[in-house]
Amino acid sequence: MSKVCIFIESDKETTNEGHFVRHMATLVYAGDSKEIEIVGTGGYTNLDQFAVQMQRNTDNGIKNLVIFDADFPKEGGFEKRNLKLLNLKEKEKVDFELFLFPNNQDNGTFEHLLEHLATEEHKGLLECFEGYESCIRGRNNPKYVSPDQKAKMYAYVSTQKKNSKETTEFKKGNWYFDRAGWWNLEVDYLKPLQDFLSLYLK
Amino acid sequence: MKSLEVKKYKNFEHLTLNDLANINLIVGKNNVGKSALLEAVSIFASNGDLEQIKAVLASRGEGVGFSSSVEKSAEKEMERFLSLYHQWNVPNFLNHPIEISANEKLSGSKTKFSMRLAGYIKSIETDSQGFERPYKLLEDNNEAMFENPDIHIGLLLSYDERKTFYMFNGERKRNPAEGSNAFEYVRTNQIMGDKNPKLYDKIALTPNEKYIIKALQIIEPQIENINFLKDDKAPGQSDERVPFVVFKNDSKRYRLSAMGDGINRILTIILAMLNCENGVLLIDEFENGLHYSVQYQLWKVINDLSTKLNVQVFATTHSMDTLRSLSELINDYPIEEMQDKVACYYLQRTQANEIKGYRYSADNFEFLINKGEDIR
Predict the structure, then answer these.
(1) 3-state secondary structure A127-166
(2) ipTM of this model?
(3) Closest Cβ opposite residue B371 in set A42, A52, A59
C-alpha cells in the first residue's frame, strides 16, 4: 500500500476535522498509520496553492485525496463544488481523488455528517440546540448566524462530561471519534466516506 | 538565465528548472544534488572553463594532480573527472556527455556546455584554422579503446562552438575560456580569506563600496569603515591582508575576524556579489553562521543588489529560518513585483529514481511559509 496524503479544508491537521479524517482513514488503512499525511489547506479556494505538493506526491508514489465540504448552493453545493475542484485538477495538472462532505452526494459540510453520527443516547442534545436556535431566530437580528451547524456539533461534544485531561484534548480539537458512546460510526450515512477511503487506502 | 537544463551531471540524469528568477532558493533533502546544482551553474557560468571544473573537483577533495608515474596519473585524473558523471559509468561517458544548457533571459537563445570522454591517437594534426595539434581525435568512441595501447583517453569540452581538448597524461592542450560570465561561488562555511582582499580591491573607492559597510552594519551598526591591511600577526614576512574595521566615534582599528563567523560570512557574500555584476552568485547553505534575525536583512541587501547589478542568485538551504526570512522579504513588496524576483525550487528524488525540480512561485512560497508548511 502506497502512502496517502489527505488534503482537508481546515487550516491544520489538529482540528476536529483533521482528527476525524485521520481516525476514519486509520480504520481502513492497511499500512502504517504514520504513512497517512493530513494537510490542512485553510479553505477550498487555497487548494491550488498545494498543486506543487500534489505533483511531488504523485511523482513519489503518494496518493492524493481531497476531502472538502460540498457547502450549499449560495456559495457551492455538491455539483458546483465538485465541478470547480475537478476543473482545478486539469488546470493545475495534478492528480487527486475527491470526496465532498457530508456524503459525496448531498449539499452540506463536515458538521452535517457529524450530526448523523450522534448516538441514540445523546441525540437529545441536538434537539436542545434546536430550541436555542429557535430562540436565536426569534430575535430576528440579521447580525446573528442561524442555523449554526458548527456551534451545534461543538455543543454536542462540549456538553459531554470530561476529566481535565480530556477537556484539554478537546480544546485542542480532539473530539474523541473513537468513543462509541459519543459517535456511531456504523450509520449508513457514513458509508460513502468509508467506501471512498477503502477504495484508495485499503 | 531563464531556464536551466542539466544532463548526466552527478545526481542528475536530466534536470530542468524553468522560469528562473533573480533569487532562486534551492531546497530538498540530503543527497538530492543541491550543491551539485550550484556546481553545474558555476561550470556553465565559467563558459565551461577547465580550471573551474578542476576547482569543483578540488572543493570535493578530488583535486586533479600528478603522480610520478604518467600512466597512473592519467588513470587517476580520468577517475576524478568521472566522479562528476552521473552513475560513474565510463562507457556512457564516452558517448553520452554531461550537458549544461540555459536559455538567456532576454534573447531566449540557448547556450550549451558539454563534456565527455574522447579517444585520441598521438599524431600531428592541423585543424581547420591552421593550428597544429599533437593528437587526432577518434570519430567513434567505444570501450574497446581502453584495450588498445595506441589509443589514449582525454576529455572533450564544448561550449557553444568552442571546443577544448584535455589529455589525461600530463600534457595539456587548453584554450582558456574567453569572455566567461562574472560569477562567484560562496561555499558552505566558507570565509574566503585568500580571495576576499582581491575582491575588495576591485570594489574599493567605487560607488559600490558603500554596500560593503551597509551589509556589515546588519550585524554591527556601529561599523563605519573597512579596509584590508597587512596582517601584522601573521608569522614571518607574510603579505596576507585581512579585514579591519573602525567604529563610529572610536579611533582604534579592529580585526573583523575577532567579531565572529556571521559578520565574516556576510562580508564574503557581499564581496562576492559586488564582483559579479551581470553574472551569477552561488551561495551554498545560505544560513551558515547567520542568526535568523539577520537573514532577512541580508536578503534585503541581496535583493536590492540583484536588481541594481543584474546578478542572478542561486542559494541552497536546509533552514526554515532562511525560508521564513525570504518569505518576509516577499511580503515587503506587492506580490506581482516579486513574481520574477524570487522562486524556490524543491529537488526531490522521484519514485522513478530521478531527481526532479519543483518550482514554488513567490506568491505560492509566501503562502505556504506563512501557513507554517515545511517545504524543505
Answers:
(1) HHHHHHHHHHHHHCCCCCCCCCHHHHHHHHHHCCCCCHHH
(2) 0.91
(3) A42
